[in-house]
Amino acid sequence: MSAPERFLGFPDWAPERLLDLLALAADLKAGRATGSLRGKVVALYFQNPSLRTRASLESALFRLGAHPVALNAGAGTWDVEHRDGVVMEGLAQEHVREGAPVLARYADAIGVRAFPRLANWEEEREEPVLSAFARHATCPVFSMEGAARHPLQGLADALTLQERLGDPRGQRFVLTWAPHPKPLPMSVPNSAVEAAALLGMEVVVARPEGFGLDPQVLGWSDALARARGGSVRETTDRVEALGGARAVYAKSWGGLSWYGDWDREALVRKEHRDWTLRAADLERGRDPFFLHCLPVRRNVVVEDAVLDGPRSAVVDEAENRLWTAMALLLRLLRGGVHRDAQPPHEGPLLA
Ligand code: CP
Fold first, then answer.
1. Which residues does the chain have with pLDDT short of 70?
2. What is the pLDDT of residues 169-183, one digit of tens each?
3. I need a surface site. Which of 65, 182, 241, 289 has the fewest CB within 10 A?
4. For residue 94, what are the β-bridge partners?
């Protein structure tokens, strides 16, 4: 018997399949397609808080006729241990070796949100918690944001880029690092780079010295982009990067150079407060629009004038979490899809 499907990040699925999923999301949004997952149950296990991910997935499941079972670790359900062979004397009362297969007896798929502990990047880039769920569940497992990637956000980012740019190939996408009071995970920036690369964009990551993204993620993204006429590079020259930008994504993340040594990293991060994105910065681009995954700290990451101005696409981007979540669930659970808004039924995929 083959292992159940997983979607822990873009590398798990072929690019053509991701592009097909985006096309389905666009059709669902435009009313050109409908889908059904009637009678299905999806468990949503959250180790961390959420507004968009939880609300979009619950709404998507309801619209598809399926039922979500949302569980919040430490607040109504158990903390789960994912490491093998540990003596469970800490907070966790349940091991993933039992928790995942038990949930799989009730549900047709399991979504997991597990942020990194921000301790050891070599371990965290392997998505230890999500991978443990995927190993032990007997149904598909998908990421609701892990330690290294946030693919549901990446899908919404990609759909927004397609909507705003038409054919984004060759157009410049700038991911610009931003200040923040705390070191944040690299999951969103990694997935944003992968999303723009999937669309064949010219991806430029502007960040201070020491804040480079994982070379493995950048290398994989560059190969993905080049196959579609794009490219991925990093620079410390934000002014140069913003020149010619068609889309600008501001995001903070902790410096990989000091990963785990956050007291030292904080001293460096404090020196880069001038990386807050301002409306004047966007004027350097080619009529760019602004993206951010949300939630965002106003006037720290980006100033009010950008978020409240005409270039902001952040609410449209958040809406696209719903349509892309519906498309992912339909594909992952092999739901019925009907084009041209014919009434949905439970039959095989037509697209
Ligand atoms: N962008 C995003 O994942 O939002 P939440 O953390 O609120 O789910």
1. 1, 341-351
2. 999 999 999 999 999
3. 182
4. 80
Q: Read off the tokens for 49.
A: 């808080």
Q: What are phi and psi of 184, to 5 degrees?
A: -110, 160
Query: Is any ligand 1 atom within 6 A of the Cβ of residue 50?
Result: yes
C-alpha separations of 239 from 124, 242, 253, 255, 284 in Å: 32, 5, 20, 20, 8
The whole-number pLDDT of residue 343 equals 52
pLDDT at 350: 43
Query: In sequence order, which residues have a C-beta less than 8 Å from that of residue 163 and are 6 or more positions away?
Result: 26, 316, 320
Residue 292 in contact with residue 318, Cβ under 8 Å? no
Q: Give the model's pLDDT for residue 259.
A: 97
- Contact residues for 239 (Cβ-Cβ < 8 A; gap 6+): 284
Nearest CA to ligand 1 atom 4: 52
Tokens of 173: 């996408």
Q: Specify whether the CB–CB gap between 25 and 154 falls below 8 A.
A: no
Torsion of CA 164, 165, 170, 171, to 10 degrees: -60
Pocket flag, ligand 1, residue 222 (CB < 6 Å): no
Chain length of the chain? 351
Ligand 1 atom 6: residue of nearest CA: 50
pLDDT at 76: 87
Encoded tokens for 268: 């460096």
- pLDDT recorded at residue 305: 98
